Amino acid sequence: MIFGKYINRYYLKNAPALLLGLLSLLIVDIAQLMIPELYRLVINGVNLGKVVVDGQTLTFTREVLFQNICLPMIWIVLMMVIGRFLWRVCFFGSAVCVQADLRERMFDHSRRLSQQYYQVNKVGSLMSLYTNDLDTIQECFGDGILMFFDALVLGLLALYKMWRMDFKLTLLALIPAAIMFGIGTIMGTTMTKRWEERQKAFSDLSDFAQENFSGIAVIKAFVKEFKELTAFRKLNRENEEINVTYTKIATLLEVLVTLFVESVICVILGYGGWLVYGGQFNAGQLVEYIGYFESIVWPIMAISMLIEKTSRGKASLNRITELMDAPVDVTDRDGVGNLENPKGSIEFRHLTFRYPDGDYNVLQDVSFQVAAGERVGIVGKTGAGKTTVVDLLLRTYNVPDGTLFVDGQDVNSVSIHSVRNACAYVPQDNFLFSDTIAHNIGFGVEDATPDQIDGAASMADVRDNIVDFKEGYETILGERGVTVSGGQKQRISIARALLKNAPILILDDSVSAVDTRTEKIILDNLKTTRAGKTTLLIAHRISTVEGMDKIVFLEDGRVEAVGTHDALYYSCPEYRRMVDLQRLEDETADSSDAVGTSDIADSVDAPEHASESVEKCEGGASHD
Ligand SMILES: Nc1ncnc2c1ncn2[C@@H]1O[C@H](COP(=O)(O)OP(=O)(O)OP(=O)(O)O)[C@@H](O)[C@H]1O
Question: Where in the numbering of this chain does the ABC transmembrane type-1 domain appear (predicted)?
Fold first, then answer.
């Protein structure tokens, strides 16, 4: 049996089924212990020609054989069959329910855990909790109750009957049992540790396999299949070794139990035979005694299996408890209300942010405002903190009080889901589900109509691609959307966000994989469809954000400048340098056939020298 704060409640919850199971088990055990008495009647009847039934001595006739032995035997077998069926249904059925319920609670908790948790814990390890560990818990719950009570009830009843027949013989038989129990307890502790190691090794293997399958394209492109195979072999070998160690200990325990059973049978045969020889026992009684002992062989085996299962169950429950105890660190404050009728204004006010596991501030004193309905571009070098800015807006991480406002309300004073509801997001990795294109586009909206989906696809300029697919909107995408091109994936993600039609639209580097013409179409569509609604567009190419109402220029986690493209170009040398560099890169790319590499390098250097005479943007920003 297994106990723990996430399991105990199920004993109570399933109490009626478990009690019925226990009652059936009791009936089966009592019935089973009637069989050795019938053995005695048969042996003594055949040997002595007489049998003692309920204190009455009867001559052993066919009628006595039928009435007092065969008929009771039929009833016993019937009771045992029905009882065994019942306890199986009750115990194992409850265990299946426990697994399903616990899985649901785990999933519910997992979905509330922050991004941080998923950065530290890999998907493979989490999956092994949902498969291996939950299976172990189920096994341990159902089999555990059965074995514990069966060992207890059948063992005690059989011992009582044996004790009544001859207490000395029973005492002798109990000595190996006591030794066995001591050894089993010590081995149980070792087995718990080994099982934990085994599960850990399995998780590592799952992590590795999961990551490999996800990154198969990169592995193939770098021709690293063999390297990965070698690494997999190493992990697999470790997994195998720990499994072998565990199996060795489990087998040793099994062998010890068998040794115990055999040694007790030797004791019974030796001492019991001597009692028969001395006339204190007759042959029928010795067979009856052996019959009782045979009845407790299973409980004894059950004890060893119980030790083994409990050890595994404890280890798996520890791992599940770790998940369930993982704190939900991004959560609503008590009593917060919802963001009502959001308009979409945003303000970052002296926000400094460091990732929970980070060792430096990724954002430093960030301040800028976005008016409701404004179209704002966020640019900056890679690693400048652009994604972090929108992650904080989406409340993926906690922010300090008084640093981030939506519609003038501190994001900490309103519910997280209402802030997220106010946003539509196109993430940098453009994650798509392995579902139909229609379902992917309609993901953010309950009961989206085909027309709405089609409209969103048109706005994202992906409609023509979709209708070209054989199954159209019903085309099922492979895992993570691998059956569509990078640009199509981006545009399907944009369509998904556009369909939500939220007051704030966030696009994180979302048009990087499309050509300039398509980019222009999407941006023009955004301008019309999003009129009056806030749009934040993160981009690397300045040309993408040039036409926005405002641009926030980030440098090393600081807001270097805020303003229109023209204003920034003339007031912020760093921005100008970036613009000039990108223009030069575009030009050199266009005429790359004609221009040599050294010429490009010289050209790229030119604006840097030109900007040396210009002042750095003052105060970093020109706030609106
Ligand atoms: N979960 C995290 N934990 C710790 N540090 C992080 C985490 N995510 C990002 N960082 C760090 O924060 C910094 C800013 O990252 P961010 O993704 O915001 O940059 P970015 O401007 O969006 O870059 P890019 O243009 O390449 O997408 C980087 O130095 C990055 O290494």
Answer: 19-312
- Number of domains present in the structure of the chain: 2
CB 555 within 8 A of CB 384: yes
- The answer to whether the beta carbons of residues 569 and 546 sit under 8 Å apart is no
Q: Which of 417, 416, 324 is nearest to 108 (CA)?
A: 324
* CATH assignment of the domain containing 170: 1.20.1560.10
Counted residue by residue, the chain has a size of: 624
Give the domain extent around 91: 8-325
Question: What's the whole-model pTM score?
Answer: 0.74
* Span 119-168, pLDDT tens digits: 888 877 788 889 889 999 998 888 888 888 888 888 888 888 888 888 88
Please state, in angstroms and rounded to a whole number, the distance separating the CA atoms of residues 1 and 61.
48
| Tokens linked to 268 | 């019974």
Which residue among 119, 381, 386 is best mutated to probe the pocket of ligand 1, counting the most ligand atoms within 8 A of its Cβ? 386
**567 CA distance to ligand 1 centroid (A)?**
27
Q: Is 383 left (phi over 0), alpha (psi -120 to 50) or beta?
A: left
Q: Which protein residues touch ligand 1 with a CB less than 6 Å away?
A: 119, 355, 357-358, 362, 380, 382-388, 428
Return the CATH number at 502: 3.40.50.300
- Is residue 589 situated within a structural domain? no
452 burial class (0-12, 13-18, 19+ CB within 10 angstroms)?
middle
One-letter amino acid at 346 equals I
CA of 352 to the centre of ligand 1 (A): 14
Cα atoms in the Cβ-side hemisphere of radius 13 Å centred on 524: 8
CA of 377 to the centre of ligand 1 (A): 18
By alpha-carbon position, which residue is closest to atom 31 of ligand 1? 383
